[in-house]
Amino acid sequence: MHEHDRYGTPGGDLASRAVPEAAVGRLAVYLRVLTSMIEQGVTKMSSEELAGAAGVNSATLRKDLSHLGSSGTRGVGYDTARLVEHIERLLGLTRHHSVAVVGIGNLGHALANYGGFPDRGFPVTALFDVDEDLIGISVGGLPVDHIDSIPAVCVEREVTIGVICTPSVAAQSACDLLVAGGVRCILNFAPVVLQVPDDVEVRRVDLAVELQILSFYEARRSSVDSSGDGALRVVAPVSDAAGIAVGR
Amino acid sequence: MHEHDRYGTPGGDLASRAVPEAAVGRLAVYLRVLTSMIEQGVTKMSSEELAGAAGVNSATLRKDLSHLGSSGTRGVGYDTARLVEHIERLLGLTRHHSVAVVGIGNLGHALANYGGFPDRGFPVTALFDVDEDLIGISVGGLPVDHIDSIPAVCVEREVTIGVICTPSVAAQSACDLLVAGGVRCILNFAPVVLQVPDDVEVRRVDLAVELQILSFYEARRSSVDSSGDGALRVVAPVSDAAGIAVGR
DNA sequence: GCGACTTTGTTCCTACGTTCACATGCGGCT
DNA sequence: AGCCGCATGTGAACGTAGGAACAAAGTCGC
Fold it and tell me: Distance between CA A163 and CA A101 in Å, rounded?
């Protein structure tokens, strides 16, 4: 199926997944909290502290960290620098991932201008668009190429991650071109469900969906208010203060 | 920490709303697929068709749709227009949600210029920033106000959704101002965990996390490739540096 | 050097979300 | 008008995530 069920692959007994996706997402959050703390000179943290800063339960945090082997010291806590190292290794951040952005509209512009992308390690090395007026001009210090050259350029610059910021109608073809260029990880901002080969991983960031989910909560809250019935049914398991979102 | 666990159905009656968050997200996707289909003149769809287009299992789709009451006709399928109506009602899209964007940098610009925001129903009615050079200028047809005026303006324009596009350090204060202005739904693009009262719903969209998750998949795949043999379960029991942790 | 305290790593358990499979119910066909 | 087929809606099973509690392990104080 498209958008692989990242859970147990049916027949794929193999390593498919030892670390749950949800845990991977949280690990990325811990990583940011940790680097921020290190900058402030913090060298040790307990699971309680780190969990508080990341907005998760401490047991969940310890379980997540256990996926990368023993990194803590009982009775003391975790060495921040060491932990960062371990998480980076697990997430594959030890080597850089060249990023290509397709569709240099408003959003594409914004992403290209982020420069090294939030948290370095993801250098943007290629920009593409169809608009002839954009080709060749420099955005964020990088020239825009025509989408026809996607496959060649991606191979040449060893792009590992493709970001799609095109209008919906162009998203699938942009995706196909990226895949043709050997890109197997795609971040899709276009509000469509992409069809890709099984070995390509797609993550979708959908603003409309996010807004509609918020709308749903707002609507429910309103109806609860008006109904006067206090028995509200909360479903979101992570709606605790500072919820960490990441649904799906 | 959160009280409402209620699983039994004490009140029972307004049972219709125990919709899981994951289902809400999918419903938003179905909604888009449906509107797109309607534009193409499609009036009826089976669960199989719709599920295929949305990239989910048909059973999951039917269960999701069951949350909004019987909308289909057995032996026939779903009436697209009717379904759209039901989903919109559940998601609270029958009334418009005024959106405020805080932080008119690259991303804020992009969002403001989307105009009505992807899929209408979410008109952007206020823009805020700290930069004096930006105050007063028009972005996407709307003037930028100073963040100090957030509370007053949000109340006045009945903003229900706040979008935070500020740098990390400014995010929490932007959030506080929005909350002070009565905004209880927040979409946060800043890579920080916001602290909010219990009745405020925050959803976080974190590009760095998304990229790092992709990086993780890429890393895992690479190690599978390079290992050659299928015995990649081997993990880093000892001090294997590149281990990806499998098994537990 | 020994004991007590602290915090990790893990085990168990509960709850949820997804999927399978089937009974129910509706439209079309003869 | 009645029967057949087909797709919905739902009940049960399965697998996974998350939280509480506990045991191992290491440090600090004496």
Answer: 5
**Nearest-CA neighbor of A212 among B112, B28, B95?**
B28
Nucleotide nearest to A23 (CA to C1'): D17
Asked if A89 contacts B241 with a C-beta cutoff of 8 angstroms, the reply is yes
The structure tokens 């069920």 sit at: A5
A175 CA to D13 C1', in Å? 38
In chain A, alpha helices (H): 21-39, 47-54, 58-66, 80-90, 106-113, 150-156, 168-180, 207-227
Report the candidate in B204, B199, B203 with the shortest Cα–Cα distance to residue B179.
Answer: B199
Return the structure tokens found at B24. Answer: 């809400």
| 28-57 of chain A touching strand C, CB 7 A cut-off | 45-48
Q: D29 C1' – A61 CA distance, angstroms?
A: 30
Strand order in the sheet with A201-204: A138-139, A142-146, A124-129, A98-102, A159-164, A185-188, A201-204
Mind listing the pLDDT tens digit of every residue in chain B (248 residues)?
Answer: 333 333 333 333 333 357 899 999 999 999 999 999 999 999 999 999 999 999 999 999 999 999 988 889 999 999 999 999 999 999 999 988 999 999 999 899 988 887 656 567 899 999 999 999 999 999 989 999 999 999 999 999 999 999 999 999 999 999 999 999 999 999 999 999 999 998 899 999 999 999 999 999 998 877 665 544 433 333 333 333 333 332 22
User: How far is B132 from B129, CA to CA, in rounded Å?
Assistant: 8
Tokens at residue B190, please? 């800043």
Distance in angstroms between the alpha carbons of the first and the last residue of chain B: 29
- Residue A156 — left, alpha, or beta (φ > 0 → left; ψ -120 to 50 → alpha)? alpha
CA of A76 to C1' of C3 (A): 18
| Contact residues on chain A for B211, CB-CB shorter than 8 A | 97, 99, 117-118, 122, 161, 187
Interatomic CA distance for residues B220 and B218, integer angstroms: 5
Task: Give CA–CA dist B150/B2, Å, rounded.
Answer: 30
- Check B207 against A208: CB less than 8 A apart: no
* A167 SS3 class: coil
Q: Cβ–Cβ of B55/A1 closer than 8 Å?
A: yes
Q: Which among B53, B202, B246 has the least Cβ separation from residue A245?
A: B202
Crossing angle of the two packed helices B21-39 and B58-66, in degrees rounded to 10: 100
d(CA B183, CA B201): 9
- Is residue B116 classed as helix, strand or coil in its secondary structure? coil
